[in-house]
What does this fold into?
Amino acid sequence: MATATTARKPRTIKAAHGTCGLTLSINGVRYRVRPLDGRGIGAARAFRLAKLAGDGEVYDLAGYPDGYAECDCPDWTFHRDGLDPAGCKHLAAARACGLIG
It folds into this structure.
């Protein structure tokens, strides 16, 4: 008994489209995360956090190869820079997510 086999058409793979984004939630406040080029300041990694609701505040974070990290938020600038190695809430959240070391 002979059976006929039908050749399958090759599967067509569509090109990827759309966008991808990362949102970081810190104490219930959502921030959009965008990578920055930190090479100009010697940073291993740098990111911009933009608040999604309210006033739309923007903060820049940088993580350096030696483990030092900084943020340009007022809490870091006026209260924690050089005093608190844990840093501000933005740096703590970025560390918790593995964005910076």
